[in-house]
Inverse folding.
């Protein structure tokens, strides 16, 4: 009797240790065949036709290409299902990625056995979102779609509503303090306000951020 063919998986993960750990976990599950793993999008894009994956697991924070553009490029090259496995939880990024028709958006705080279970759900035709991502998606639909702010400015404004200082904003977003100040100046200009308190009031009144989502 011929056994059921294993689903073919390609993994794109820049962190060497995590890539090795995920590769081991996927292979050890016995249900999947890890046909290749890559550190960068550019390498995966070149080989995807040869790999012929059923599933591609992607961290959208890989440094050699914008995550949204990377997914779009992969989907244009080969019709595999895409699963995002990342630490990125920006509402705008989540919305942009989901609009590309991916099958799952899973945060890296998940236990690896649970991650394998998520793969099973997706293989069987389901779609998986981490609980906090599902909450973010619901909140996002209630936001003002005509915001004048960029995705990064929205992230900064959200931190302003939480009372964060310039240095705390810089630390959380992994940017320079001067860069955080530049973003805030641009926010003030776009919202026609002159202080953090005015920016917070404008953000809440115009539904520019979802302050309840972490």
């Amino acid at each position: 009797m011929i056994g059921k063919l294993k689903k073919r998986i390609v993994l794109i993960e820049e962190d060497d240790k995590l890539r090795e750990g995920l590769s081991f976990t996927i292979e050890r599950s016995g249900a999947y065949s890890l046909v290749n793993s890559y550190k960068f999008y550019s390498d995966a894009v070149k080989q995807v036709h040869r790999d012929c994956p059923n599933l591609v697991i992607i961290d959208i924070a890989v440094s050699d290409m914008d995550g949204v553009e990377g997914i779009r490029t992969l989907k244009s090259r080969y019709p595999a299902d895409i699963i995002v496995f990342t630490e990125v939880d920006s509402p705008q990024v989540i919305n942009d990625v989901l609009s590309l028709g991916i099958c799952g958006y899973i945060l890296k705080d998940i236990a690896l056995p649970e991650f394998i279970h998520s793969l099973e759900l997706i293989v069987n035709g389901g779609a998986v979102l981490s609980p906090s991502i599902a909450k973010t998606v619901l909140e996002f639909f209630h936001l003002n779609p005509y915001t004048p702010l960029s995705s990064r400015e929205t992230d900064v404004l959200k931190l302003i509503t939480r009372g964060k200082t310039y240095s705390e904003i810089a630390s959380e977003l992994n940017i320079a303090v001067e860069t955080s100040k530049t973003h805030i100046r641009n926010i003030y200009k776009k919202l026609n306000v002159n202080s953090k308190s005015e920016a917070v009031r404008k953000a809440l009144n115009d539904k520019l951020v979802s302050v309840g989502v972490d």
User: Anything to note?
Assistant: The chain has two domains: 7-139, 151-205. The domain at 151-205 is CATH 1.10.10.10 (Arc Repressor Mutant, subunit A). The mean pLDDT is 87.
